[in-house]
Amino acid sequence: MQLRYAFRLYPNAVQRAALARAFGCARVVFNDAVRAREDARKAGLPFPTAGELSRKLITAAKQTKERCWLGEVSAVVLQQALRDAEAAYRNFSASLKDTRKGPKLGAPRFKSRKDARQSVRFTANARWSITGSGRLSLPKIGAVKVKWSRTLPATPTSVTVVKDAAGRFFASFVINTDPAADQARMPDTDRTIGIDLGLTLPQTPSGGTPIAVLSDGTKIDSPRFLRRAEKKLKKAQQELCRKQKGSKNRAKARVKVARAHARVADARREFHHQLSTRLISENQGIAVEDLSVKALARTKLAKSVHNAGWSSFLSMLEYKARRYGRTLVTIGRFEPTSQVCSTCGVKDGPKPLNVREWTCSACGTVHERDHNAALNVKQAAGLAVSACGAPVRPEPVLAQREETGSHGFPTGNRAA
Q1: 414 pLDDT above the threshold of 70
Q2: Residue 216 known to be catalytic
Q3: Helix %, strand %, coil % for the chain, to 5?
Q4: Is 290 among the residues known to form the active site?
């Protein structure tokens, strides 16, 4: 299984300038490839092959006065930009044919130097290395300081250098993990759990509300990262709006806003990682609902839905279940988990969201709404989890997203 390990980079001024050249050259080659494909399409000609684009846009372009500066960066970076363009068109074609999973993608668009995210990829033939002092040595860039937060479990196959909207640099290493070693880290257990994801309107501005309720009665409070940072975000956004467009002060204010959002996103991601790892390590089988996050994000609870980050949390559960040999079962979103009594199985009808407790009309059992739904989620997934808790069959896991590529945009309304 392939995983990514990301570490913070701290390049000096010279290295930042070299990385900026690499970002710019890769972006130019990508845009040239998109332009060549579009020109061929408009002229009714066959699309140029990858080899033809490489000879024309890289090898021959370096000999011209207009593109001679392409030789200032590693050739691997330029070749990977062409690969990204080819992958973007393959995904677009597969999306048109409905052979690609996930939301529909539009045609690849031109990249801009003002894009929030810039990235370049170095493969093994680029001869990058990790020095004895722990620095990342990149061709035509130099040895960059790395903040190692953990040890790499294996030799990386490639590294992607990313600059985010907040101006931070990261090195994303691709690692091939050992399945036997991963499963040995988490021995089998006989526990199974059902998870009901939901939102409860808070009673106080800082009150903790459950983001998830487990079938064993455990309630997991939502830290509400975005809500807690709203005051600072509002102030930073107001300062940005007051700056003159195109000024240096506006650029500084934009970075300040981006860093404030990055702190919220990092805290939420760390919370999701810790929670998903704990659930995977403690349970052999996990049952969740297939939520329509896009539809929920169009309601009055949109901010709370995005703040909860359900999609990223479920994605973490999926790949960690596959990595550690656990079973993740997803039940249909139209399953009436909040309407059915988990004790006798009688459907008691829909209930408004403000009804948090209800009594079954058939057996008289008093139910807490979310706990009852979590029990029903676990029972609905009983076909994939045996009575003793051992997994019967593993569930398929969605492929992880690509590291770099075009900014193709969703065009459909398919749920996430």
Answers
A1: no
A2: no
A3: 40, 20, 40
A4: no
